Amino acid sequence: MKEIEFKSGLTWRAFLGIMYSATILMPAAIFTYLMTGTNLLGTFSFPVAGFVAALFFTELARIFGKPLTQQEVTIIWGASLIAVEAISVQIFMGFYFRSLYPGTWFFKIGGVPLPQLIPNWFAPPPTSPVIRLRTFFHLDWSLPIIVNTLGLFLFYRVLHCLFGILCYQISAIAERLPFPVQQVAADICITMTKRQENKIRVLSVTSIIAAAYSFIVYFIPYVFQIKTIPVPWIDLNKSIELFIPGASLGIGTDAIMLAIGMILPLKIAVNIFVGSFAAYFIGNHILFRIGLFPDWRPGMNCALAFQRSVLRFWVFPQIGLGIAAGLVPILMHPKIVVSALASLKGAEKTSGALFSYKILILGIIVTSAIIVIMNTWLTGCSPLIFIGL
User: Fold this and answer.
1) Do residues 121 and 115 lie in contact, with contact meaning Cβ atoms separated by under 8 Å?
2) 128 and 262, same domain (yes or no)
3) Can you give the residue range of the structural domain that contains 166?
4) Confidence (pTM)
5) Of the chain's two ends, which shows fewer C-beta atoms within 10 Å, N or C?
6) What's the CA dihedral at 77, 82, 85, 86 to 10 degrees?
7) 122 and 20, same structural domain?
8) How far apart are CA 89 and CA 158, in angstroms?
9) Cα–Cα distance between 366 and 360 in angstroms, integer?
10) Contact at 8 Å (CB) between 28 and 34?
């Protein structure tokens, strides 16, 4: 068997692509999210922002006569997501919503207004002028930004990367499991560099269709104030609330969601639909009838009914099922897990494993301990709560 040759894609050209994402796509992601509620990162981890950055720099490099390699395109694709997501969605977008909390004096917990309960490391104090100035360039934002960006966010990002590398080595290298959505990303990176005629034709046609659809859905309504297709879904709650109170029903209109449905195997897509319909349409109605969904009110839209039903009831079985999905396979088939971890020893030398599994596990333990200690110190809660999380 021919040994696979691994090459580095972290070059100065890839670095420029990452910087382009951080400086150009980040404002676009923030604006698009605030205006339309649509995230440029896409859904189900389908990387829209990464696709834009990779396609732009691939064509730019080809124009100058020095095409990018597959490794460079992959680095631009993946790192662009981190640059856009880390800065725009999870940090500055989160801080923007936190700046609204100090003004919510009518919301009380135990009779105490919410602004008096929010610590200064989470958001500026209610008396801070930044609420009126609407800016991050103020000393009152220094503590929240330092604690959440350089502290918790950085360690959480490191932990996610370590878990991602470990799962990659077990699932992709040792077990050779397929990943349909990520296979699409890999095929696009290969298509951009190798330029197979049939795949380029498919990519071009689908890109034109997606651009035309986005023009109708987003550009026309927000520029000409003409309503075309509701986004991100067609809300049907008002049509059914008199007959099926409590139910949540909508038809997605986001092109990315439709694309993901075509990528996933039909069996999985059908199971997702059946499960969602049973829970949030039939289940919500039953919960309302038996008094377990008292939050529902006539006039609630699809998103609000869904959100309140999850917070009131569905979050608890979801947590239980999530824990069961992770623990039951390990308890039922421990030999498979042990053999997969043991196979990493051989994969480290022959299959391109990134790190020793001992280093990965040690890094996960140390990073998790730091996160638990920081959360315990900041909140004063028991560390057992954060160990469970």
Assistant:
1) no
2) no
3) 8-195
4) 0.67
5) N
6) -160
7) yes
8) 17
9) 10
10) no
CA–CA–CA angle 179, 211, 197 (5° rounding): 60
Contact 118, 105 (CB under 8 A): no
Q: What is the mean pLDDT of the chain?
A: 79
- Shared domain for 160 and 253, answered yes or no, is no
Supply 12's token pair. 């100065």
How far from 180 is each of 39, 47, 240, 264, 268, CA to CA, in Å? Answer: 21, 14, 35, 6, 11
Q: Is residue 118 part of a domain?
A: yes
**Is residue 369 a part of any domain in this protein?**
no
195-247: pLDDT as tens digits:
777 777 887 888 888 888 888 888 888 888 888 888 778 999 989 999 999 99
Given a contact cutoff of 8 angstroms between Cβ atoms, the answer to whether 83 and 21 are in contact is yes
Q: What is the CA radius of gyration of the chain?
A: 24
CA–CA gap between residue 14 and residue 63 (Å, rounded): 16
- Structural tokens at position 166: 């470990």
Q: Within this chain, do residues 61 and 177 fall inside the same structural domain, yes or no?
A: yes
pLDDT at 72: 87
Asked whether the predicted pLDDT for residue 277 surpasses 90, the reply is yes
